[in-house]
Amino acid sequence: LGMADDLRLALERDELVLHYQPTVDLASGEIIGFEALVRWQHPTRGMVPPLEFIGIAESTGLIVPLGRWVLTEACRQAVEWGRPLKMAVNVSVRQFEAGDLAATVAAVLAETGMPADQLCLEMTESVLLTDTDENLSRIVALKALGVMLAMDDFGTGYSSLAYLRRFPMDVLKIDRSFVDRLTTGDAGDETLVTTIVRLGHRFGMRTVAEGIEDETQLTALRAMGCDYAQGYFLSRPLPSAAAGALLETGL
Ligand code: G
Ligand code: G
Ligand code: MN
Ligand code: NA
């Protein structure tokens, strides 16, 4: 069986699972929500990371039903946890361009009872780079549902600045490559991240730093006024039961 057929069956056989990585308020240290990250519990290959199958899902169009499953499961889980949490879900460019994502999101919100303002859709520059009126109207349709929109991996592409003005994004996620460099002690790296945080704030966005791996980075980002953080230093992505437990105890 090829990987594509295998993946199609995986969806039918419920082999996909979501892990949840907490998003932490840098000022209070509280968990304000999670990012849902898909994994494939393959019967023979074990836990397959998304980098090994999202590409295939995209090229075969399976990303549409897979993406709908992810959205539904993440919302269902957030509602089950029963407290006001932000649940962030990654949306790939193919999912965005194929079919009516806003209609899908509206249906999932209705099915699960998830409050729209607790769902955050993360998209990378590749979604926004195709700066067409069609993409703008898709973004506007999503915003009209009341969901939040995040710009993921900010700073890794080429033309990040023009679309800060054009698209109504709520959250800017600072790519972990910038966070990585905060340990070098280089003043230039600090200036860069401080400037990204300010840029986000000036456009009315909340800022999330990704990939925090040590205390130095955490302290630096807090001092810079970055709002939220994620990373292995705070917590790895966790299976749902462990994520739910962490929500009870705090970090
Ligand atoms: O969890 P991990 O760090 O292995 O994720 C690797 C990449 O896969 C990240 O870029 C992440 O955004 C992407 N990814 C994880 N889950 C999903 C998902 O549900 N949908 C899409 N489109 N991408 C995902
Ligand atoms: O592209 P996106 O931001 O969705 O990617 C999230 C990915 O980053 C997930 O696969 C997650 O496992 C990974 N990740 C989360 N925290 C850390 C971290 O502290 N260090 C590294 N190297 N990867 C991380
Ligand atoms: Mn993401
Ligand atoms: Na990211």
UniProtKB/TrEMBL annotation:
The keyword Isomerase does not apply. It comes from the Bacteria. The keyword RNA-binding does not apply. Keywords: Membrane, Signal, Transmembrane, Transmembrane helix. Residues 1-251 form the EAL domain. This is EAL domain-containing protein. It comes from Paractinoplanes ovalisporus. The lineage of its organism: Bacteria, Bacillati, Actinomycetota, Actinomycetes, Micromonosporales.
